[in-house]
Amino acid sequence: MTERLTIRRPDDWHVHLRDGAMLSAVARYTARQFARAIIMPNLSPPVTDVAAAAAYRDRILAALPAGSDFTPLMTCYLTDAADAQEIARGFETGVWAACKLYPANATTNSAHGVTDIRALGPVLETLQRIGMPLLIHGEVTDPEVDFFDREKVFIDRTLGHLVRDFPALKIVLEHITTAEAVDFVTAAGPTVAATITPQHLHLNRNALFAGGLQPHAFCLPVVKRERHRLAVRAAAVSGSAKFFLGTDTAPHVRERKEMACGCAGIFNAPYALESYLAVFEEEGALERFEGFASEHGARFYGLPLNEGTVTLERRAVTVPDLLGAGETAVVPFHAGQTLAWQLVD
Ligand code: NCD
Ligand code: ZN
Asked: How far is CA 203 from CA 208, 222, 224, 263, 298, in A?
């Protein structure tokens, strides 16, 4: 039995760090596990211009523990008013690593998102030309569509056209949850990739209702049927360079989860590597973990691989029921459960 696993330092390609007290409380968890992370721009108000992104990056750096060498990679929140020149300037000056497309009202703080993707043509042309990745929350918001079909319908109605119209545009379909997404990304050319969260590897939709309504299993896109979970797991451990680690860690204070109309989002940052590693071990794919966690994403983004390594060892850890207090009290993913591996400091 493998007792220790050492891999190149990993990156997290999808993180919500929030702002203010929550940022101060959670930044250290991501910075402890990962060398770099793609930081989502869905603050209120959203991060739509270069100055706001640079200021947010400074707040993140200020929130890190002393001695941390963590690098936040900032993203631009696309709106209907997105300005191609501002975006290009932010990318070329190294402030932005990517653009994030939220269909309007698809998820937390997406009210300013895009209402008509086709109207973004000039922006997408620019991204394609300068090699700036487009990160997509791939769900329709059409109330006629069954909630569990939102991702599949987005692929059918929008993503296929987008990939055909912008064949050289780098697209990351974020936090994929369905067999249809796995199939689409697998069949597409090398410009299309996907991130995968730990919760979509561990949970199917039964988790939402097991023993009563379970708000801490609620995230967007919502967890799906078992056959979809199995397809996403197979993709993650396949070794394909199209699939890489993106936790979508999304902390909300406990009260905002455990209420009527509770928020979507799972806070998985504290034990993210441990959570993913459990899946790779169950799938007999420990030797493919490094590619998923530390190589595929950087190569897709065109960034250098990290120097240095991290080590995980087989040592059981019980995940706390609650982390933080007051306005930062958050229930972590796997709360109360025992995981078999631990990241060694
Ligand atoms: C995210 C959040 O809370 O910001 N929530 C979530 O369920 N994943 C937004 C998002 O990525 O959809
Ligand atoms: Zn997210």
From this structure: 9, 10, 8, 18, 27
Residue 275 reports pLDDT greater than 90: yes
Ligand at minimal distance from the CA of 220 is: 1
As a whole number of angstroms, the distance between CA 249 and CA 266 comes to 6
**Residue 108: other Cβ atoms inside 10 A:** 18
| Annotation says 146 is catalytic | no
| pLDDT tens digits for range 133-172 | 999 999 999 999 999 999 999 999 999 999 999 999 999 9
When the pLDDT of each residue in the chain is averaged and rounded to a whole number, the result is 98
Residue 243 CB-density burial (10 A; 0-12 exposed, 13-18 middle, 19+ buried): buried
Whether residue 6 is predicted with pLDDT greater than 90 in this model: the reply is yes
* Strand, coil or helix: 144: coil
Q: Tell which atom from ligand 1 comes closest to the C-alpha of 174.
A: 11
Binding residues for Zn(2+): 14, 16, 100, 137, 175, 248
CA–CA gap between residue 212 and residue 79 (Å, rounded): 38
The response to whether residue 220 sits with its C-beta less than 6 Å from ligand 1 reads: yes
The ligand 1 atom at the shortest distance from the C-alpha of residue 265 is 7
CATH class of 10-308: alpha beta
CB of 310 within 8 A of CB of 10?
Answer: yes
- Inform me whether the pLDDT recorded for 260 exceeds 90: yes
Q: From ligand 1's centre to the CA of 301, what distance in Å? A: 22
pTM of this prediction exceeds 0.85: yes
Q: Which helix (H) or strand (E) holds 234?
A: helix 226-237
Residue burial 178-209, b: 16+ Cβ < 10 Å; e: rest: bbbbbebbeebeebbbbbbbbbbbbbbbeeee
